[in-house]
């Protein structure tokens, strides 16, 4: 396998920003489906794929989401073409015989709700990170948010009680004229060590 071209790395990482302001350009169903079809190939423990996505795009769906958002996130989410709710299925292990047939891993999780929930959350967070990178690869910009009331989002969009909200991600085409300067990043020497 060869390294990606430097311009691709720029788009995915070095020049990408957490976008706060988007152009009023719609994101199509085709693009959202293509986004999911990239994310589904990304790794998760036991191939568990616990993330569940709600692509909030219609005015009615945005209206349902609005009360759950912090005041600092409400306007940017309502103005973004799409806000993705990333949740995790706390009973993801029910699908493991199909998704991970190597051996029956269900007993690891069936009797330990805390372990199942933390495993689902960690893997759904991983899937959310890949969703951001995949969005950038498709020409979209992304702005992840954690300022929201999870219980309200779950009540509105996951009323079955088996899903917990992990993260919200605004998607669209960023307004380059109104994008903030990137913040400082810590150097390798302060954050990493080769042993």
Please give a handful of descriptors for the protein shown.
NADH Oxidase; four-stranded antiparallel β-sheet; 195 residues; alpha+beta
CATH homologous superfamily title: NADH Oxidase
Spatial order of strands in the largest sheet: 1-2-4-3
How far is the first residue's CA from the last residue's CA? 25 Å
Stretches where pLDDT is under 50 for at least 5 consecutive residues are none
Mean pLDDT level: 96
Sheet with the most strands?
4 strands, antiparallel
Order of helices and strands: HHEHHEHHHEHEH
Oligomer: single chain
Return the domain count: 1
The CATH class designation is Alpha Beta
CATH architecture: 3-Layer(aba) Sandwich
How does the helix and strand content classify structurally? alpha+beta
Helix proportion = 40-55%
The geometry reads as globular
The rounded Rg comes to 18 Å
Estimated share of beta-strand residues: 5-15%
DSSP, total strands: 4
Count of helical regions: 9
For this structure, the CATH topology is NADH Oxidase
Account of the 3D structure:
The protein is α+β, with helices and mostly antiparallel strands. The chain has a single domain, classed as 3-Layer(aba) Sandwich (NADH Oxidase). It contains nine helices and four strands. It has helices at 6-14, 29-39, 59-65, 71-79, 96-99, 106-110, 113-137, 150-157, 188-191; strands at 51-56, 82-89, 141-145, 163-172. The chain has a four-stranded antiparallel sheet with strand order 1-2-4-3. The longest helix is centred in the middle third of the chain and has 25 residues, at 113-137.
């Amino acid at each position: 396998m060869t390294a990606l071209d430097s311009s691709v790395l720029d788009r995915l990482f070095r020049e990408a920003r957490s976008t706060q302001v988007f152009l009023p350009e719609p994101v199509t169903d085709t693009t959202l489906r293509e986004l999911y079809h990239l994310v589904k190939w990304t790794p998760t423990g036991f191939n568990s794929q616990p993330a569940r996505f709600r692509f909030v795009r219609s005015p009615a769906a945005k209206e349902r989401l609005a009360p759950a958002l912090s005041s600092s996130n409400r306007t940017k989410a309502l103005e973004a073409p799409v806000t993705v709710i990333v949740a995790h299925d706390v009973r993801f292990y029910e699908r493991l015989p199909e998704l991970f047939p190597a051996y029956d891993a269900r007993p690891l999780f069936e009797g330990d709700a805390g372990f199942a929930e933390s495993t689902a959350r960690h893997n759904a967070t991983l899937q959310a990170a890949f969703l951001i990178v995949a969005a950038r690869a498709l020409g979209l910009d992304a702005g992840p948010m954690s300022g929201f009331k999870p219980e309200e989002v779950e009540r509105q969009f996951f009323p079955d009680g088996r899903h917990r909200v992990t993260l919200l991600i605004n998607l669209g085409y960023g307004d380059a004229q109104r994008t903030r300067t990137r913040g400082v990043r810590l150097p390798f020497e302060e954050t990493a060590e080769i042993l």
